[in-house]
Amino acid sequence: MPLDILVGAQWGDEGKGRITDLLAAQADVVARYSGGDNAGHSVTVDGRLFKLHLIPSGILQTHASCVLGHGMVLNPVTLVEEIDSLASAGVEVSPRRLAVSLAAHVITPAHRALDGAEERARTGPALGTTGRGIGPTYADKASRLGLRAEAMNDPDEFAILVRAHAERAARLLETFYGLPAPDPDDSARSYRELALRLRPFLADTTGLLADALAAGKTILAEGAQGILLDLDHGTYPYVTSSSATAGGALSGLGVGPRHVRRVIGVAKSFQTRVGAGPFPTELSGHTADALRGSGSQPWDEFGTTTGRPRRVGWLDGVLLRYASRLNGLTDLAVTKLDILGQLPALRLCTAYQRQGIRHPDLPGLPSMLEDFAPEYEESASWPQDVSGVREYDALPREARSYLERIEALLGVPIRWISVGPERPQVVVREAVG
Ligand code: GDP
Ligand code: IMO
Ligand code: MG
Fold first, then answer.
1. Is 357 exposed, middle or buried (0-12, 13-18, 19+ CB in 10 A)?
2. I need a surface site. Which of 140, 148, 185, 209 has the fewest CB within 10 A?
3. Which residues are annotated as catalytic?
4. Closest residue (by CA) to atom 6 of ligand 1?
5. pLDDT tens, 330-357?
Protein backbone atom coordinates (compact mmCIF):
# COMPACT_ATOMS: atom_id res chain seq x y z
CA MET A 1 0.00 0.00 0.00
CA PRO A 2 2.85 2.44 -0.45
CA LEU A 3 3.08 5.87 -1.99
CA ASP A 4 6.45 6.90 -3.42
CA ILE A 5 6.82 10.61 -4.11
CA LEU A 6 9.26 11.81 -6.72
CA VAL A 7 10.20 15.51 -6.65
CA GLY A 8 12.52 17.67 -8.71
CA ALA A 9 15.21 18.75 -6.24
CA GLN A 10 16.31 21.87 -8.17
CA TRP A 11 14.62 24.40 -10.51
CA GLY A 12 12.94 21.84 -12.76
CA ASP A 13 14.09 19.77 -15.73
CA GLU A 14 16.13 17.45 -13.51
CA GLY A 15 15.02 14.42 -15.49
CA LYS A 16 11.87 13.64 -13.47
CA GLY A 17 10.16 12.15 -16.52
CA ARG A 18 13.13 9.90 -17.27
CA ILE A 19 13.33 8.61 -13.66
CA THR A 20 9.54 8.29 -13.36
CA ASP A 21 9.55 6.12 -16.48
CA LEU A 22 12.20 3.93 -14.84
CA LEU A 23 10.40 3.61 -11.49
CA ALA A 24 6.99 3.22 -13.10
CA ALA A 25 8.10 -0.26 -14.16
CA GLN A 26 7.40 -1.23 -10.52
CA ALA A 27 4.35 1.00 -9.91
CA ASP A 28 0.66 0.31 -10.51
CA VAL A 29 -0.48 3.92 -10.65
CA VAL A 30 1.50 7.03 -11.62
CA ALA A 31 -0.04 10.35 -10.61
CA ARG A 32 0.75 14.01 -11.28
CA TYR A 33 -0.16 16.22 -8.34
CA SER A 34 0.66 19.79 -9.30
CA GLY A 35 1.28 22.23 -12.11
CA GLY A 36 -0.03 22.04 -15.64
CA ASP A 37 1.37 22.15 -19.15
CA ASN A 38 4.15 24.45 -17.99
CA ALA A 39 5.90 21.13 -17.31
CA GLY A 40 7.82 19.39 -20.06
CA HIS A 41 9.01 15.86 -19.32
CA SER A 42 11.06 14.16 -22.05
CA VAL A 43 11.32 10.41 -22.03
CA THR A 44 13.23 8.36 -24.60
CA VAL A 45 12.16 4.77 -25.20
CA ASP A 46 14.03 2.72 -27.78
CA GLY A 47 15.15 5.84 -29.63
CA ARG A 48 11.65 7.37 -29.64
CA LEU A 49 11.34 10.70 -27.86
CA PHE A 50 8.10 11.46 -25.98
CA LYS A 51 7.47 14.98 -24.68
CA LEU A 52 4.85 14.93 -21.96
CA HIS A 53 3.32 18.07 -20.47
CA LEU A 54 0.29 16.84 -18.54
CA ILE A 55 0.00 13.08 -18.69
CA PRO A 56 2.30 11.28 -16.24
CA SER A 57 5.38 9.66 -17.76
CA GLY A 58 4.03 6.36 -16.38
CA ILE A 59 1.74 6.18 -19.42
CA LEU A 60 4.74 4.80 -21.35
CA GLN A 61 4.80 1.70 -19.10
CA THR A 62 1.87 -0.18 -20.56
CA HIS A 63 0.82 -1.94 -17.33
CA ALA A 64 0.48 1.31 -15.35
CA SER A 65 -2.56 3.53 -15.04
CA CYS A 66 -2.30 7.29 -14.62
CA VAL A 67 -3.99 10.01 -12.63
CA LEU A 68 -4.11 13.77 -13.04
CA GLY A 69 -4.69 14.91 -9.48
CA HIS A 70 -6.79 17.78 -8.21
CA GLY A 71 -3.71 19.88 -7.40
CA MET A 72 -3.24 20.32 -11.15
CA VAL A 73 -4.42 22.97 -13.58
CA LEU A 74 -5.46 21.58 -16.95
CA ASN A 75 -5.65 23.14 -20.36
CA PRO A 76 -8.19 20.92 -22.17
CA VAL A 77 -6.72 21.91 -25.54
CA THR A 78 -3.25 20.59 -24.71
CA LEU A 79 -4.66 17.60 -22.83
CA VAL A 80 -6.63 16.45 -25.87
CA GLU A 81 -3.61 17.10 -28.11
CA GLU A 82 -1.43 15.02 -25.81
CA ILE A 83 -3.94 12.16 -25.67
CA ASP A 84 -4.17 12.18 -29.48
CA SER A 85 -0.44 12.38 -30.07
CA LEU A 86 0.24 9.49 -27.67
CA ALA A 87 -2.52 7.46 -29.33
CA SER A 88 -1.02 8.10 -32.77
CA ALA A 89 2.33 6.89 -31.40
CA GLY A 90 0.62 3.64 -30.40
CA VAL A 91 0.27 4.39 -26.66
CA GLU A 92 -3.15 3.50 -25.25
CA VAL A 93 -4.71 6.47 -23.44
CA SER A 94 -8.23 5.27 -22.68
CA PRO A 95 -10.33 6.04 -19.58
CA ARG A 96 -9.11 2.63 -18.36
CA ARG A 97 -5.59 4.04 -18.17
CA LEU A 98 -6.12 7.73 -17.45
CA ALA A 99 -8.28 9.36 -14.77
CA VAL A 100 -8.65 13.13 -14.52
CA SER A 101 -9.64 14.62 -11.18
CA LEU A 102 -13.05 16.27 -11.06
CA ALA A 103 -11.51 18.93 -8.84
CA ALA A 104 -8.59 19.92 -11.09
CA HIS A 105 -8.90 23.49 -12.35
CA VAL A 106 -9.35 24.40 -15.99
CA ILE A 107 -7.07 26.80 -17.88
CA THR A 108 -8.87 28.93 -20.48
CA PRO A 109 -7.62 31.11 -23.36
CA ALA A 110 -8.32 34.12 -21.11
CA HIS A 111 -5.97 32.74 -18.43
CA ARG A 112 -3.21 32.48 -21.01
CA ALA A 113 -3.84 36.02 -22.20
CA LEU A 114 -3.78 37.26 -18.59
CA ASP A 115 -0.47 35.45 -17.96
CA GLY A 116 1.16 37.47 -20.76
CA ALA A 117 -0.53 40.71 -19.70
CA GLU A 118 0.59 40.34 -16.08
CA GLU A 119 4.16 39.61 -17.17
CA ARG A 120 4.28 42.77 -19.28
CA ALA A 121 2.70 44.90 -16.55
CA ARG A 122 5.06 43.87 -13.74
CA THR A 123 6.96 46.68 -12.09
CA GLY A 124 9.99 44.43 -11.44
CA PRO A 125 11.71 42.21 -14.03
CA ALA A 126 9.48 39.74 -15.88
CA LEU A 127 9.34 36.28 -14.25
CA GLY A 128 9.82 34.55 -17.56
CA THR A 129 6.75 32.34 -17.13
CA THR A 130 5.97 29.68 -19.69
CA GLY A 131 2.94 31.75 -20.77
CA ARG A 132 0.60 28.80 -20.22
CA GLY A 133 -1.83 30.65 -17.93
CA ILE A 134 -0.65 28.84 -14.81
CA GLY A 135 -0.53 31.82 -12.42
CA PRO A 136 -3.94 33.31 -13.35
CA THR A 137 -5.61 29.88 -13.11
CA TYR A 138 -4.25 29.17 -9.64
CA ALA A 139 -5.17 32.76 -8.67
CA ASP A 140 -8.79 32.13 -9.74
CA LYS A 141 -8.74 28.87 -7.78
CA ALA A 142 -7.59 30.66 -4.61
CA SER A 143 -10.14 33.44 -5.21
CA ARG A 144 -12.85 30.80 -5.62
CA LEU A 145 -13.59 32.03 -9.11
CA GLY A 146 -12.13 29.02 -10.92
CA LEU A 147 -13.64 26.51 -13.29
CA ARG A 148 -13.27 22.92 -12.15
CA ALA A 149 -13.04 19.89 -14.39
CA GLU A 150 -16.25 18.52 -12.83
CA ALA A 151 -18.16 21.17 -14.81
CA MET A 152 -17.23 19.30 -18.01
CA ASN A 153 -19.69 16.56 -17.01
CA ASP A 154 -22.38 18.85 -18.43
CA PRO A 155 -20.86 20.33 -21.61
CA ASP A 156 -23.73 22.81 -22.19
CA GLU A 157 -23.54 24.15 -18.65
CA PHE A 158 -19.72 24.20 -18.94
CA ALA A 159 -19.96 26.35 -22.07
CA ILE A 160 -22.10 28.86 -20.15
CA LEU A 161 -19.54 28.97 -17.33
CA VAL A 162 -16.65 29.39 -19.78
CA ARG A 163 -18.43 32.26 -21.52
CA ALA A 164 -19.12 34.04 -18.20
CA HIS A 165 -15.51 33.59 -17.14
CA ALA A 166 -14.24 34.83 -20.53
CA GLU A 167 -16.47 37.93 -20.38
CA ARG A 168 -15.15 38.83 -16.95
CA ALA A 169 -11.54 38.28 -18.07
CA ALA A 170 -12.19 40.34 -21.21
CA ARG A 171 -13.24 43.32 -19.10
CA LEU A 172 -10.00 42.99 -17.14
CA LEU A 173 -7.81 42.59 -20.24
CA GLU A 174 -9.43 45.41 -22.18
CA THR A 175 -10.01 48.01 -19.49
CA PHE A 176 -7.13 47.37 -17.09
CA TYR A 177 -4.41 46.13 -19.46
CA GLY A 178 -5.65 47.74 -22.67
CA LEU A 179 -5.26 44.45 -24.53
CA PRO A 180 -7.53 42.47 -26.85
CA ALA A 181 -9.27 39.52 -25.21
CA PRO A 182 -10.11 36.07 -26.60
CA ASP A 183 -13.67 35.98 -27.95
CA PRO A 184 -16.01 34.58 -25.24
CA ASP A 185 -18.23 32.82 -27.81
CA ASP A 186 -15.25 31.09 -29.44
CA SER A 187 -13.97 29.95 -26.04
CA ALA A 188 -17.41 28.66 -25.00
CA ARG A 189 -17.89 26.79 -28.30
CA SER A 190 -14.47 25.13 -28.39
CA TYR A 191 -14.52 24.23 -24.68
CA ARG A 192 -17.92 22.58 -25.09
CA GLU A 193 -16.39 20.29 -27.73
CA LEU A 194 -13.38 19.60 -25.51
CA ALA A 195 -15.69 18.72 -22.60
CA LEU A 196 -17.36 16.11 -24.79
CA ARG A 197 -13.94 14.58 -25.47
CA LEU A 198 -12.69 14.70 -21.88
CA ARG A 199 -15.87 13.77 -20.00
CA PRO A 200 -15.16 10.01 -20.08
CA PHE A 201 -11.83 10.57 -18.30
CA LEU A 202 -13.26 12.48 -15.31
CA ALA A 203 -13.16 10.56 -12.04
CA ASP A 204 -13.11 10.80 -8.28
CA THR A 205 -9.34 10.34 -8.20
CA THR A 206 -8.94 10.53 -4.42
CA GLY A 207 -11.35 7.61 -4.09
CA LEU A 208 -9.56 5.77 -6.85
CA LEU A 209 -6.17 6.24 -5.16
CA ALA A 210 -7.57 5.18 -1.79
CA ASP A 211 -8.91 1.99 -3.37
CA ALA A 212 -5.55 1.35 -5.03
CA LEU A 213 -3.72 1.72 -1.69
CA ALA A 214 -6.26 -0.50 0.07
CA ALA A 215 -5.71 -3.16 -2.61
CA GLY A 216 -1.96 -3.10 -1.88
CA LYS A 217 -1.04 -1.31 -5.08
CA THR A 218 1.97 0.97 -5.43
CA ILE A 219 1.44 4.62 -6.36
CA LEU A 220 4.21 6.79 -7.73
CA ALA A 221 3.61 10.55 -7.51
CA GLU A 222 5.44 12.34 -10.33
CA GLY A 223 6.45 15.86 -9.39
CA ALA A 224 6.41 18.71 -11.87
CA GLN A 225 8.62 21.78 -11.72
CA GLY A 226 11.31 21.71 -9.02
CA ILE A 227 11.07 22.41 -5.33
CA LEU A 228 12.94 25.72 -5.75
CA LEU A 229 9.99 26.80 -7.94
CA ASP A 230 7.49 25.92 -5.18
CA LEU A 231 5.10 28.79 -4.47
CA ASP A 232 5.84 28.79 -0.73
CA HIS A 233 9.33 27.36 -0.47
CA GLY A 234 11.03 28.49 -3.68
CA THR A 235 12.79 31.63 -4.84
CA TYR A 236 9.66 33.82 -4.58
CA PRO A 237 8.51 35.67 -6.66
CA TYR A 238 10.55 33.76 -9.27
CA VAL A 239 8.49 30.61 -8.75
CA THR A 240 5.52 28.84 -10.24
CA SER A 241 2.09 29.00 -8.61
CA SER A 242 1.76 25.47 -7.27
CA SER A 243 3.18 23.23 -4.54
CA ALA A 244 5.97 21.21 -6.11
CA THR A 245 7.22 19.75 -2.81
CA ALA A 246 6.44 16.35 -1.28
CA GLY A 247 3.85 18.08 0.92
CA GLY A 248 2.15 19.24 -2.28
CA ALA A 249 1.89 15.62 -3.41
CA LEU A 250 -0.20 14.71 -0.37
CA SER A 251 -2.59 17.62 -0.73
CA GLY A 252 -2.56 17.54 -4.55
CA LEU A 253 -3.58 13.86 -4.60
CA GLY A 254 -5.57 13.65 -1.37
CA VAL A 255 -3.46 10.88 0.20
CA GLY A 256 -2.47 10.84 3.88
CA PRO A 257 1.18 10.88 5.03
CA ARG A 258 1.07 7.41 6.60
CA HIS A 259 1.13 5.86 3.13
CA VAL A 260 4.46 7.42 2.15
CA ARG A 261 7.25 4.88 1.69
CA ARG A 262 9.93 6.94 -0.05
CA VAL A 263 10.53 10.51 -1.09
CA ILE A 264 12.83 10.47 -4.07
CA GLY A 265 14.65 13.62 -5.10
CA VAL A 266 15.79 13.88 -8.70
CA ALA A 267 18.82 16.11 -9.20
CA LYS A 268 20.83 16.84 -12.29
CA SER A 269 24.58 16.45 -11.76
CA PHE A 270 24.82 20.19 -12.41
CA GLN A 271 22.32 23.01 -11.98
CA THR A 272 19.91 24.55 -14.53
CA ARG A 273 17.16 27.13 -14.48
CA VAL A 274 14.74 28.57 -17.07
CA GLY A 275 13.30 32.02 -16.48
CA ALA A 276 14.42 34.79 -14.15
CA GLY A 277 15.55 34.63 -10.52
CA PRO A 278 18.65 34.14 -8.38
CA PHE A 279 21.15 31.42 -9.29
CA PRO A 280 24.33 31.58 -7.13
CA THR A 281 26.38 29.00 -9.06
CA GLU A 282 25.43 30.23 -12.55
CA LEU A 283 28.09 29.90 -15.25
CA SER A 284 28.71 31.69 -18.51
CA GLY A 285 31.22 31.22 -21.31
CA HIS A 286 32.75 27.96 -22.54
CA THR A 287 31.87 25.83 -19.51
CA ALA A 288 28.23 26.91 -19.69
CA ASP A 289 28.16 26.23 -23.43
CA ALA A 290 29.61 22.76 -22.91
CA LEU A 291 27.02 21.85 -20.27
CA ARG A 292 24.12 23.34 -22.23
CA GLY A 293 25.04 21.79 -25.57
CA SER A 294 24.28 23.34 -28.93
CA GLY A 295 20.69 22.17 -29.20
CA SER A 296 21.54 19.42 -31.67
CA GLN A 297 20.78 16.65 -29.14
CA PRO A 298 17.34 16.14 -27.60
CA TRP A 299 18.81 16.27 -24.08
CA ASP A 300 20.62 19.58 -24.62
CA GLU A 301 19.56 22.29 -22.19
CA PHE A 302 16.74 23.98 -24.09
CA GLY A 303 13.25 24.08 -22.53
CA THR A 304 10.94 21.19 -23.50
CA THR A 305 7.92 23.49 -23.30
CA THR A 306 9.26 26.83 -24.56
CA GLY A 307 12.53 25.97 -26.34
CA ARG A 308 14.34 28.68 -24.34
CA PRO A 309 18.05 28.06 -23.61
CA ARG A 310 18.39 27.03 -19.97
CA ARG A 311 20.74 28.88 -17.64
CA VAL A 312 23.39 26.45 -16.35
CA GLY A 313 25.77 26.30 -13.40
CA TRP A 314 27.69 24.11 -10.95
CA LEU A 315 25.77 21.77 -8.68
CA ASP A 316 24.63 23.66 -5.58
CA GLY A 317 25.02 21.44 -2.50
CA VAL A 318 23.55 24.08 -0.18
CA LEU A 319 20.31 24.12 -2.16
CA LEU A 320 20.29 20.32 -2.37
CA ARG A 321 20.53 20.15 1.43
CA TYR A 322 17.61 22.57 1.54
CA ALA A 323 15.67 20.31 -0.86
CA SER A 324 16.44 17.30 1.30
CA ARG A 325 15.30 19.04 4.50
CA LEU A 326 12.15 20.46 2.96
CA ASN A 327 10.96 17.20 1.42
CA GLY A 328 12.39 14.64 3.81
CA LEU A 329 14.23 12.95 0.97
CA THR A 330 14.91 9.26 1.53
CA ASP A 331 16.69 8.63 -1.78
CA LEU A 332 18.32 10.57 -4.55
CA ALA A 333 18.50 9.98 -8.31
CA VAL A 334 21.27 11.86 -10.13
CA THR A 335 20.97 12.45 -13.87
CA LYS A 336 23.22 13.49 -16.77
CA LEU A 337 26.46 12.22 -15.27
CA ASP A 338 27.55 11.51 -18.86
CA ILE A 339 27.30 15.22 -19.69
CA LEU A 340 29.09 16.51 -16.59
CA GLY A 341 32.01 14.20 -17.24
CA GLN A 342 32.78 16.01 -20.50
CA LEU A 343 34.23 18.97 -18.58
CA PRO A 344 37.96 19.03 -17.82
CA ALA A 345 37.48 19.83 -14.10
CA LEU A 346 34.53 20.12 -11.73
CA ARG A 347 33.29 22.39 -9.02
CA LEU A 348 30.70 21.63 -6.37
CA CYS A 349 29.20 24.30 -4.13
CA THR A 350 29.39 23.07 -0.53
CA ALA A 351 28.66 26.30 1.38
CA TYR A 352 27.78 29.97 0.94
CA GLN A 353 29.79 32.94 2.19
CA ARG A 354 28.37 36.24 3.37
CA GLN A 355 30.30 38.97 5.18
CA GLY A 356 33.08 36.56 6.12
CA ILE A 357 30.69 33.97 7.57
CA ARG A 358 30.41 30.46 6.13
CA HIS A 359 26.95 28.90 5.74
CA PRO A 360 26.74 25.18 4.90
CA ASP A 361 22.95 25.60 5.12
CA LEU A 362 20.76 28.31 3.73
CA PRO A 363 20.28 30.76 6.62
CA GLY A 364 16.80 31.97 5.72
CA LEU A 365 14.69 32.01 2.62
CA PRO A 366 15.81 31.13 -0.90
CA SER A 367 14.55 34.54 -2.02
CA MET A 368 17.64 35.93 -0.23
CA LEU A 369 20.06 33.96 -2.42
CA GLU A 370 21.45 37.04 -4.14
CA ASP A 371 23.28 38.01 -0.94
CA PHE A 372 25.47 34.88 -0.89
CA ALA A 373 28.66 33.88 -2.70
CA PRO A 374 29.18 30.17 -3.35
CA GLU A 375 32.17 28.36 -1.87
CA TYR A 376 33.42 25.58 -4.11
CA GLU A 377 35.27 22.32 -3.77
CA GLU A 378 37.20 21.51 -6.93
CA SER A 379 37.78 18.03 -8.21
CA ALA A 380 39.11 16.20 -11.22
CA SER A 381 36.71 15.08 -13.88
CA TRP A 382 36.85 11.77 -15.73
CA PRO A 383 37.93 11.38 -19.32
CA GLN A 384 35.94 8.18 -19.94
CA ASP A 385 32.51 8.10 -21.58
CA VAL A 386 30.25 6.67 -18.86
CA SER A 387 27.10 6.30 -20.97
CA GLY A 388 27.66 2.55 -21.29
CA VAL A 389 28.34 1.93 -17.58
CA ARG A 390 25.73 -0.15 -15.70
CA GLU A 391 27.57 -1.09 -12.46
CA TYR A 392 28.58 1.40 -9.79
CA ASP A 393 32.06 -0.04 -9.41
CA ALA A 394 32.64 0.39 -13.15
CA LEU A 395 32.24 4.16 -12.88
CA PRO A 396 35.51 6.09 -12.90
CA ARG A 397 36.96 6.73 -9.42
CA GLU A 398 36.53 10.50 -9.86
CA ALA A 399 32.83 10.07 -10.70
CA ARG A 400 32.28 7.90 -7.61
CA SER A 401 34.08 10.48 -5.43
CA TYR A 402 31.85 13.25 -6.79
CA LEU A 403 28.69 11.22 -6.09
CA GLU A 404 29.85 10.15 -2.65
CA ARG A 405 30.60 13.77 -1.75
CA ILE A 406 26.99 14.63 -2.63
CA GLU A 407 25.74 11.74 -0.49
CA ALA A 408 27.88 12.94 2.43
CA LEU A 409 26.59 16.51 2.06
CA LEU A 410 22.97 15.38 2.12
CA GLY A 411 23.10 12.24 4.22
CA VAL A 412 20.87 10.67 1.57
CA PRO A 413 21.85 7.65 -0.55
CA ILE A 414 22.09 8.01 -4.32
CA ARG A 415 20.16 4.99 -5.57
CA TRP A 416 19.94 5.76 -9.28
CA ILE A 417 22.62 7.29 -11.47
CA SER A 418 21.48 8.12 -14.97
CA VAL A 419 24.16 8.09 -17.64
CA GLY A 420 21.97 8.68 -20.69
CA PRO A 421 18.34 9.29 -21.66
CA GLU A 422 17.50 5.71 -22.71
CA ARG A 423 15.84 3.26 -20.30
CA PRO A 424 18.85 0.95 -19.81
CA GLN A 425 21.32 3.82 -19.31
CA VAL A 426 21.24 3.75 -15.53
CA VAL A 427 23.25 2.44 -12.60
CA VAL A 428 20.94 1.11 -9.86
CA ARG A 429 22.27 0.77 -6.30
CA GLU A 430 19.46 -0.86 -4.30
CA ALA A 431 21.88 -1.95 -1.56
CA VAL A 432 23.31 1.46 -0.68
CA GLY A 433 22.51 3.53 2.43
P1 GDP B 1 11.99 16.91 -16.36
O2 GDP B 1 11.17 18.12 -16.66
O3 GDP B 1 12.51 16.92 -14.96
O4 GDP B 1 11.30 15.62 -16.69
O5 GDP B 1 13.27 17.00 -17.31
P6 GDP B 1 13.27 17.38 -18.87
O7 GDP B 1 12.70 16.25 -19.62
O8 GDP B 1 12.70 18.73 -19.08
O9 GDP B 1 14.84 17.52 -19.14
C10 GDP B 1 15.72 16.47 -18.93
C11 GDP B 1 16.36 16.08 -20.28
O12 GDP B 1 17.53 15.32 -20.02
C13 GDP B 1 15.49 15.21 -21.16
O14 GDP B 1 15.76 15.53 -22.50
C15 GDP B 1 15.98 13.78 -20.84
O16 GDP B 1 15.79 12.86 -21.90
C17 GDP B 1 17.43 14.04 -20.64
N18 GDP B 1 18.12 13.12 -19.71
C19 GDP B 1 17.66 12.62 -18.53
N20 GDP B 1 18.63 11.90 -17.94
C21 GDP B 1 19.71 11.97 -18.75
C22 GDP B 1 21.03 11.46 -18.66
O23 GDP B 1 21.42 10.81 -17.70
N24 GDP B 1 21.89 11.77 -19.69
C25 GDP B 1 21.50 12.51 -20.77
N26 GDP B 1 22.40 12.77 -21.71
N27 GDP B 1 20.25 12.99 -20.87
C28 GDP B 1 19.39 12.74 -19.87
P1 IMO C 1 9.32 20.74 -15.44
O2 IMO C 1 8.18 19.93 -14.84
C3 IMO C 1 11.60 24.41 -15.58
C4 IMO C 1 9.44 28.09 -14.54
C5 IMO C 1 9.29 29.11 -15.67
C6 IMO C 1 9.31 30.40 -14.87
C7 IMO C 1 8.55 30.01 -13.60
C8 IMO C 1 7.08 30.43 -13.61
O9 IMO C 1 9.57 20.40 -16.86
O10 IMO C 1 10.52 20.63 -14.57
P11 IMO C 1 4.96 29.41 -14.86
O12 IMO C 1 4.66 29.27 -16.31
O13 IMO C 1 4.94 28.13 -14.10
O14 IMO C 1 4.11 30.45 -14.17
O15 IMO C 1 6.47 29.99 -14.82
O16 IMO C 1 8.65 28.61 -13.46
N17 IMO C 1 8.96 26.73 -14.84
C18 IMO C 1 9.76 25.69 -15.14
N19 IMO C 1 11.10 25.63 -15.30
N20 IMO C 1 10.86 23.29 -15.67
C21 IMO C 1 9.52 23.34 -15.49
O22 IMO C 1 8.75 22.23 -15.46
C23 IMO C 1 8.91 24.59 -15.25
N24 IMO C 1 7.64 25.00 -15.05
C25 IMO C 1 7.67 26.30 -14.79
O26 IMO C 1 10.36 29.01 -16.57
O27 IMO C 1 10.63 30.71 -14.50
MG1 MG D 1 11.13 19.71 -17.99
1. exposed
2. 185
3. 13, 41
4. 13
5. 999 999 999 999 899 999 999 999 999 9
